[in-house]
Amino acid sequence: MAARSKANRILAAVLIPLALLTLAGMAALWPSGSKEGVSLANPYATAPGVTFDTGTIQNVVTGNCMQDTGQQGTNQQGTNQQGSGQQDTGQQQTGQQQPAQQAPQQAPGQGSDCTFAFTEPDKGGSPVKVVINPDVAASHGVKPGDQIRYLNLSNAQGATGSQGSPAYIFVDFVRTMPIVLLAVLYAVVVIAVARWRGLRALIGLVGAYFVLANFLLPGLVEGKPPLLLALVGSTVIMIGVLYFAHGFSARTSTALLGTIFGLAITALLAAWATNAANLAGVGSHDAATLVNTSSNISISGVILCGLIISGLGVLNDVTITQSSAVWELYELAPASSARKLFTSAMRIGRDHIASTVYTIAFAYAGAALPILIIVMLYDRPLMDTLTSAELSEEVIRTLVGSIGLVLAIPVTTLIAVLVVKATGISAAGPNALGAGTSGPSAAGKAGGVADDGGHSHADDVADTGALAAAALEERSRRTAVEPGALPTEEAGTRRGRRADRG
Predict the structure, then answer these.
(1) Fewer CB atoms < 10 Å away: N or C end of the chain?
(2) Phi and psi for 378 in degrees, rounded to 5?
(3) Rounded distance between C-alpha atoms, residue 498 and residue 502, angstroms
(4) 117-151 core/surface letters (b: 16 or more CB in 10 A; e: else)
(5) How many Cα atoms occupy the beta-carbon half-sphere of 485 within 13 Å?
(6) H-helix or E-strand containing 60?
(7) Which residue windows does the record flag with biased composition (Low complexity) (predicted)?
(8) CA distance 392 to 303
């Protein structure tokens, strides 16, 4: 108990000042919320009389763009009633009132074909004829039953329909229901498998997005130091997420220390790489938009924050896994030495490193797939492709994040081994391995060597699976030789486990 209290005091002595320093930095960097000097046109702002409406597609047709927009402009009633068979009326009125447009409609080869969707408005009324964007029609298309959002220009001042333009223009699909269903399914699966810990993780995720939306993003807009913003924001997120999801324990504190170490390495590498590789967002439409939005926004700073934030989830994954692996291995073989425990845990860590590197690379490749296809079609040399403005940011993001998480694994494992040996069951106790015996046999057990006819001990094996098997074998032998030792030790192990998990 004295050793456990000492280890917990050491962890608290390191983490509490770090948490207070982080909160002080957050208070000093907290954005004012002012958007002075920001000039960004809202793409969803509309002119008087123009609205964004939603509806369900009833029918999809293809027709001449010039002909159909002409009908729509000269006879709005005819447009609204296309689905009810009154198209001829619109054509007759077009011919009588605007003969100048008759020639383009009848001339062969004039105009191109457009896709139109007869859509029933959600607010009620007759179906309207919505023109579908050519890129949407070519890549994805629309079909009856799709819910869409469209721009309604029919009531605009000086309606453009009289100039041959459509009155209803496709804007986007309505995706509310699929996203809600996926979110509900995700929450159900997480809670069903992880139970209360999964629920706490979901709530922690909401808190993390709160920090991003209210601290990190506004701070970047106001021109706060990007490196400090990313470090402070990431540390706050990790402290909140880890302790809220996994509870206050030595195991969680160990994972947090490893995470902060990996985060610091990632931040330093990201700061150097952003400057050395001259990452400035060249060729990105979003970056160009931000440059023209405010003079306070630094595109390099935004990229730097992105390099740090993008690796948070994977970094948290490997550190908490390594910390848990050390604890579980120790509970299987509490008599194993610190060196053997570290070696066994690092075998798990190496497997995790290999799979996690693939995870990062493929995740970024999937997100950048359209860019990869475009770059491939350029048919440039491989090195020129990887160092181009289009791909260099993703390549550096992958390398920086991978280096940070790889270095975090041995550090987390070492901290976890030191803590678990200090807070766990002492091997020198009265019921520990080798206690209650004397002579050469006890000396052999204390030294961790094989005895009793070549039986294996925890410190004699060099494989994680063999370590667990050796631990079980030792317990079985002690049950036969010392019937009173095993229950006492198991009770102590359970007490240590409960104390660790809070």
Answers:
(1) N
(2) -70, -25
(3) 6
(4) bbbbbeeeeebbbbbbeeeebeeeebeeebebbbb
(5) 19
(6) strand 51-64
(7) 68-113
(8) 11
Q: Hey, how many other C-beta atoms are within 10 angstroms of the C-beta on 387?
A: 13
User: Of the CATH numbers 2.40.50.140, 1.10.1040.10, 3.40.50.720, 1.10.60.10, which one belongs to the domain with range 51-174?
Assistant: 2.40.50.140
* Angle between helix 464-481 and helix 485-501 axes, rounded to 10 deg: 140
Q: What is the pLDDT of residues 380-416, one digit of tens each?
A: 887 887 888 778 888 888 888 889 888 999 999 998 8
pLDDT in tens, 20-69: 999 999 999 998 877 777 777 666 666 677 888 889 999 988 887 765 55
Distance CA 104, CA 182 (A): 48
The residue ranges of the chain whose pLDDT is under 50 are 70-109, 160-162, 425-462, 485-493, 495-502
Q: What is the DSSP string of 70-99?
A: HHHHH-HHHHHTGGGT-HHHHHHHHHHH-G
**Rounded Cα gap, residues 281 and 190, in angstroms:** 36
Buried b (16+ CB within 10 A) or exposed e, 401-431: bbebbbbbbbbbbbbbbbbbbbbbbebeeeb
Distances from the Cα of 342 to the Cαs of 329, 331, 354, 471, 494, in angstroms? 10, 14, 18, 16, 22
pLDDT of residue 177: 92
Amino acid identity, position 23: L
Q: What is the DSSP letter of 502?
A: -
Token pair 């959002």 in the structure block, residue: 149
**218/32 Cα distance (integer angstroms):** 8
What span, in angstroms and rounded, lies between the C-alpha atoms of 305 and 223? 12
Distance of CA 55 to the CA centre of its chain: 32
Q: Count the neighbouring beta carbons within 10 Å of the beta carbon of residue 462.
A: 11
170 bridge partner residues: 150
**What six digits make up the tokens of 467?**
């370590």
- Torsions phi, psi for 352 (to 5 deg): -65, -40
Find all residues with CB under 8 Å of 206, minimum gap 6, and list them. none
User: Nearest CA to 224 among 41, 25, 396, 397?
Assistant: 25
Contact 119, 130 (CB under 8 A): yes
Nearest to 315 by CA among 258, 253, 269: 258
Please give the structure tokens belonging to residue 375: 């770059």
**Which pair of structure tokens corresponds to residue 91?**
């054509």
Long-range Cβ contact pairs of 6-9 (< 8 A, separation 24 or more): 6/422, 7/250, 7/418, 7/419, 7/422, 7/423, 8/250, 8/423
Query: What's the whole-model pTM score?
Result: 0.68
| Structure tokens, 247 | 């509870």
**Per-domain boundaries in the chain:** 2-33+177-423, 51-174, 446-501
Provide the residue type at 435 as one letter: A
